[in-house]
Amino acid sequence: MKIEAKDIRIDTFCSSGPGGQSVNTTYSAVRITHLPTSTVVSCQDEKSQIKNREKAMRVLRARLYEVEMDRPAGSVGQKSASSKLGSGDRSEKIRTIISPKTVSPTTA
Q1: Is the pLDDT reported for residue 9 higher than 90?
Q2: What is the pLDDT of residue 24?
Q3: How far apart are CA 43 and CA 55, in angstroms?
Q4: pTM across the whole model
Q5: Which residues lie across from 29 on neighbouring strands?
Q6: Is 40 helix (H, G, I), strand (E, B) or coil?
Q7: Which helix (H) or strand (E) holds 82?
Q8: CA-to-CA distance for 79 and 67, rounded, in angstroms?
Q9: Closest by CA position to 39, among listed 13, 16, 65
Q10: Helix (H, G, I), strand (E, B) or coil at 11
């Protein structure tokens, strides 16, 4: 999946969490925002900003790909008739459980 440079905003900031002085002095954490979809990905796993940027771009591509795959192939937001119908499995049917407490004794 190709992501245009004009469609993203990259912010760098200091990492948080344990790590000593290097956490407070280097801007190694990266936040990438995909502007058309407002998807935000942040990464602060590595000590290198370059590695964090590459990792964040991989995560962003994966999320955008997942959104693209979830979108229906035809018209947006409409389901086909076959997807609205159930398969008729036993798990989809409404079952009534009859316990001995709910059954009244019959008089003969």
Answers
A1: yes
A2: 76
A3: 7
A4: 0.62
A5: 13
A6: strand
A7: helix 81-84
A8: 16
A9: 65
A10: strand
Q: Is 59 exposed, middle or buried (0-12, 13-18, 19+ CB in 10 A)?
A: middle
CA-CA-CA-CA torsion for 14, 18, 24, 28, nearest 10 degrees?
Answer: -40
- The CA radius of gyration of the chain, in Å to the nearest whole number, is 26
Q: Are 49 and 27 in contact (CB under 8 A)?
A: yes
CB 35 within 8 A of CB 7: yes
Q: What are 38-56's pLDDT values in tens digits?
A: 999 999 988 899 999 999 9
The tokens of 30 are what? 């990266």
3-class SS at 44? coil
Distance of CA 90 to the CA centre of its chain: 30
